Amino acid sequence: MIFVAVGTQFPFDRLIQCIDEWAAENNMPVHAQIASGKYTPQHASYDRFMTTDDFNEKLTSADLIISHAGMGNIITALENNKPIIVMNRQHQLGEHRNDHQADGLEWMSKLSGVYTASSTDEMCDLLNRKHELHGSEHHDMAQRSRLIAFLDQAINA
Amino acid sequence: MNKTKKIFAISSPGGHWIQLTRICNGLEGRNQIVYAMPDKLFKAKKDQTVYSVIDVSADDKWKLIPCALQISYILLKERPDTIISTGAAPGAVAIMLGKLFGIHTIWVDSIANVQTISRAGRMIQKRADIFLTQWPHLSDGTKIQHQGSVL
């Protein structure tokens, strides 16, 4: 099963429609979280918004995550060793209030287990070779431990 | 170990909140943490205190006032030693109020801000006692520090 999630702030119809159409052609089960999107999936099952528990349940039962280029879904996918494909929202298409998701795409692509698409064409290319995508191999927590140790020390100084 | 310090942790929902909770998970052992975030779908875990606040962005400035009143109420009630936020606008409001109330404040700029410090971050950059970026290249070595990242 593929789980696609666009966050809660804005709709992302361009992504949802792309995945829904690809899934229909390829007869692939998909669950989508679509926020306030106008496009309603014809093939995929969907929720507009999900509780954290429902979200985590869908994420852990999926073998591929697809998302807008938002940090929350990337962190959650990496922590669960799921491969994730992210596509950035575009400011000029009214998909976000700025283009920071496009700025992030380059470094996101360097993370193990994270795949990036800057267009629906690139997304379809990745979907067509989804069997080659793999989750992050080892999730390095050294930087997180360092940050927490610094904060703990600063708070309790 | 005694839980000596009380932390007020606040952020927007979504990615900011995921980053905040990952940081706070590591701080929960030694510190008492009270959370606030604007999401009705979120269900707090047992033993967690999570206040709901109005969701604001820097685009709808008129909502900042009720948000500031809510946060003031929480700060006066909970009397935290430290405020920590990963952004965005509600966190910036909390940092400003923290400064006003003499509370130690820490800003951890979201890892999503790769090219520049976030807009909310720039608003409170001079006010936060500790201002961190998660990107080495955005650090200036003094006021904007890099001390690790959630990923």
TrEMBL record, chain A:
The name of this protein is: UDP-N-acetylglucosamine transferase subunit ALG13
Q: Where does it live in the cell?
A: Endoplasmic reticulum
Report the GO molecular function annotations.
Answer: hexosyltransferase activity
Could you list this entry's UniProt keywords, alphabetically sorted. Answer: Endoplasmic reticulum, Glycosyltransferase, Transferase
User: Any keyword Glycosyltransferase?
Assistant: yes
Q: Which part of the chain is the Glycosyl transferase family 28 C-terminal domain? A: 1-102
Q: Which Gene3D superfamilies match?
A: Glycogen Phosphorylase B (3.40.50.2000)
Under the heading InterPro entries, the entry gives:
Alg13-like, Glyco_trans_28_C
Taxonomic source organism: uncultured Thiotrichaceae bacterium
User: What's one Pfam family here?
Assistant: Glyco_tran_28_C
GO BP field? dolichol-linked oligosaccharide biosynthetic process
Q: What is its main location?
A: endoplasmic reticulum
Q: What is the similarity comment for this entry?
A: Belongs to the glycosyltransferase 28 family.
Automatic annotation (TrEMBL), chain B:
- One Pfam family assigned to this protein is Alg14
GO biological process terms, alphabetically, are: dolichol-linked oligosaccharide biosynthetic process
Judging by the UniProt lineage, the source's domain of life is Bacteria
Protein name (Swiss-Prot/TrEMBL) = Oligosaccharide biosynthesis protein Alg14 like
Organism annotation: uncultured Thiotrichaceae bacterium
